[in-house]
User: Fold these one by one.
Assistant:
Number 1:
Amino acid sequence: DVKVTQSSRYLVKRTGEKVFLECVQDMDHENMFWYRQDPGLGLRLIYFSYDVKMKEKGDIPEGYSVSREKKERFSLILESASTNQTSMYLCASTDRKYGYTFGSGTRLTVV
Amino acid sequence: AQSVAQPEDQVNVAEGNPLTVKCTYSVSGNPYLFWYVQYPNRGLQFLLKYITGDNLVKGSYGFEAEFNKSQTSFHLKKPSALVSDSALYFCAYYNTNAGKSTFGDGTTLTVKP
């Protein structure tokens, strides 16, 4: 019954590594999102996408990029991981009527 | 700017007592409002929504919320709290023009036995 799948629940990477976080949804949603969640800072939007090959910057895009080659897959890329990118990353999709469906999250630790 | 606010960081209630988690909104036009719940180390789960119609909305796990236009509020309620209701709750507004949601900062609900 899982509808939004994030490839990893926990991830540990080294500073400077290129990191890929994958998200796949099976609901044929057009809109997909990447958030990071940090204590005391709530949910902050990194990037979102309205359609294949389209992307829009959110509130905190610096240090991140995204890729959407297929409708069901939205990838978040950390070009050169840094310790301040240690966080919980949440992927979501929506059909604009029924709210967001979130993945289970990826807790990334950069050492 | 259009937004939602959750005025309480933390709400504590005893098991069996009614609970309320507050949300106010500042939105022009007809708001699409949502509540989500997040359990530890998990993603957010949809609880309920208000788009139009009846001001009292019923959702998952016995939760309900009342849309109050005059007070610009959308408080989450449950008549009898369970320890298992302890979690982080988010109120959200969906901007249909922008195609994305704005979330409140979240309220941690703790239900004590």
Number 2:
Amino acid sequence: TQLLEQSPQFLSIQEGENLTVYCNSSSVFSSLQWYRQEPGEGPVLLVTVVTGGEVKKLKRLTFQFGDARKDSSLHITAAQPGDTGLYLCAGAHNNNDMRFGAGTRLTVKP
Amino acid sequence: DAGITQSPRHKVTETGTPVTLRCHQTENHRYMYWYRQDPGHGLRLIHYSYGVKDTDKGEVSDGYSVSRSKTEDFLLTLESATSSQTSVYFCAITSRDTDTQYFGPGTRLTVL
């Protein structure tokens, strides 16, 4: 059983559309990270959120940490083909206990 | 770029043979981690190290051992590889004073 559930598992959209992916858990985390991974490479950190209710923006990406620090969402505005990749969320209890979701595989078609 | 390299990047081996994967970092990070990534499971922690000769088990440690004889190198050993250990293996380090982990480029291991 996955501690962190990501949805949807797969998402295929057209360039210019908006999308939201979700990361849900029954556990409370001290922080939550979002990573993006491309084929043949390691995950690359996008953002870390720490405070319940926190919202962070990274250009067209908006990240939100739930008030109870159990869940998070990633919203992409006007998706581009370069956004294609595997998006992973990871919740940390401490340095040595970080749990990853299985990921959302996003394809943005031109 | 957190200065992490992994070797080899690809390896094909046969069931029952020993395999050692190497993770090398250049920035003197105390914490280092080994994960495996499989479809539908995400990344799962195998072992981690919190200093030279200080290691501990993660979520999926059976069949794996690790060693850290110096700060910059963290070795993962499969004593007798099995087909279920076919996977992509990632090394990671933790940036100082944060929970954030930075990953190496991965090693794709195939056990026939």
